[in-house]
Amino acid sequence: MGQAHADARAASPDLVTAPAEPERDAEALKALALWAERYSPCVAMDAASPGREGLLIDMTGGAHLFGGEVALLTDMTRRLAEADIPARLAMADTAGAAWALARFGKQRRIAPPGKTREALGPLPVPALRLAPEDVKLLSRFGLRTIGNLLALPRAGLARRFRGEAGLTLVRRLDQALGVEPEILEAVRPPPAWRVWRNFLEPVIDSAGVETVLNDLAPSLAEALERDGQGARRLALTGFRVDGRATTLTVSLSQPSARAGHLAKVLKERGLEHLDLGFGVDAMMLSAEVAEPLNPVQSDLDRGLDGDQALALAGLLDRLGARLGEAAVYHLEGRQSWLPERSQGRRPAGEGAPPPAREAPGLPDRPLLLLDPPEPVTALAGLPDGPPARFTWRRVTHRVVRAQGPERLSAEWWRPTRRNKPARTRDYYRVEDGEGRRYWLFREGLYGREDQREQQDVDGATELVSFPPEWWMHGVFA
Amino acid sequence: MFSPDPVHEPDASPLTTPRAGRLGLEEAWGEGVTGRAGAVAFALTRAAQDDPRPVVLAAPRPWVREHGGWFRDGLKGLGLADGRLLLVETRKEGEILWALEEVLKSRAVAGAVAAVDAVSLLASRRLDLAAREAAAPCLLLRTAAARDISAARRRWRVRSAPSAPHPDDDLAPGAPRLSLALTRSRGEPPGEWLVEWDDETHRFRLAAGLADHGLVPQGRTVAAA
């Protein structure tokens, strides 16, 4: 470790080397961490020392679910070996002690409850998660095992080192012994409501997943309902035999604790999206986000009775799961007087903001808006009058009636495309001989906005002609 | 009760919201982009009458690219506030049919209007059945000159028509008018109507004065006074 490549080659000429890939290592570690959630919802990654990455799993009160601690470690060892993942496992009262035992322990890697001190005694000092220079310093004092350190008076220990090192040493000791608590930062925040099943034979297809899901959903629904909660975001996780996890998540428009609905929404999302690999041998269904069950009325529900509102929420979930959450939406107003900026989309089912104050007596507006507007060649009787005829999408229309202009000034504070200055728009509602009604606008005012500055190749600025342009912006019913 | 305009409305006319025995799938061909906008306006306002549930308006992305997106201010002009209207935009046309069936089966909507072209006979039968069971009008907006057989109960042709005279300005377009033709229907005669947008009631009514000109084949005139 820490040796120069040339030195290493000199010592052992057959050395096989590979460049370090810390990013891929981190990715692999994260994948493994998600897989390890099959044992506990709280799994933390330990990537502090490169080359010595590991996982810390909080099994507090959970080992009995797997038949005790010995059975748990045996099960883990077997599954990891099957997935070709080399690993050393240990279990202790504290994360620090388990870390030490996993890396430096000789035979018995399970420290019985309350026997941490005894288990750590024979281990070398680096097992305390110390920096290499501190380890070197300790060995100079002749302190080689944790037992040596524990034999010394605690107060003196910190004082032997200058600066931070002493404090770190004492803190690491305390953490290993459980005097100072160590909080594990879970790779994913553990869900409060989760249910899972292990199977003897791996599930290898969507049909099998569906069976498991139908089995899990009622248990989760029951757990949620007991707490008066409903799921807003669901995750179905499959733990693969090759040491990876695969997850399918879906959002719900209303909190739900109905088993049938939870299962249906996930199925609609598509169970085939789960990448089962060579099979999964455990599955977990969890409510990642939950909210109180008493329904909150959205603007969509107004005037609906309970059954109708419930049916609507169910519909939104099924549509959103299959089509994507952005596919089902409402329009809402935005602060702009330019038509194309005056509206936005809000996913259906999300709470509506208080309705904005709208101008009463809306002027006539088209039903369909072309965004961006399409260029039109138009011929006007008067330069600043309505068009007499225009050509749009290769069809020429003769205007028989027209109303306008309705003037919308440019929003000069917004940046424009291709550095063109923003110009005033004059909108006209026009009708052709067949009764087809369109919304056209002329961009730019004659005499005021028909010239612009342009820099030529030498950097000199000159005024060039920039005549007003006609655009098609909408179609009336 | 006094109303300034006599309301010309043959009862149980195909123009009104379908009820009871007349329920089921309908389809409409709009002529050009304006005709299709007209068909949307006709179908949406008809579905939204007297029902608090939302109305679904669905279109695949290619349709939206060609015709333009739904404009909120225009929809409000039809009397449809933001919350009343549930918009669905899918990547592919095939997803529209699936979404429509879910929408109808849920019984959570007052009606549905969807832009879709490729509809098999089987798919249209399923939609027809779902629409009748849900008691919600469902209208397919079609563009291609489809010669396919479909199970739709009514087939409309919608065309823009020169608007009504503007009350104050001779040069400006007045109330929008549509020419509606029922080209195929089960158990009722085909017909042609000229309808005019009524800003007060937020619906199309028969264009005043034209009912007597033979354009309403089986119409009866009801004068409310």
Would you kindly provide a written description of the structure presented here, covering whatever features stand out?
The complex is a heterodimer of chains A (477) and B (225). With 477 residues, chain A is an alpha+beta fold. In chain A, strands 9-10-11-12-13-16 form a six-stranded antiparallel barrel. A four-stranded antiparallel β-sheet of chain A has the order 3-6-4-5. A two-stranded antiparallel ribbon of chain A has the order 1-2. The model of chain A has no long low-confidence stretch (mean pLDDT 84). Chain B is globular. Chain B has a domain of 139 residues: Rossmann fold (3-Layer(aba) Sandwich). Chain B is of the alpha/beta class. In chain B, a hairpin with a 5-residue loop joins β8 and β9. Chain B has five helices and ten strands, in the order βαβαβαβαβαβββββ. In chain B, α4 packs parallel to α5. The interface between A and B is large, with 55 and 56 residues. β7 of chain A pairs antiparallel with β4 of chain B, so a sheet runs across the interface.
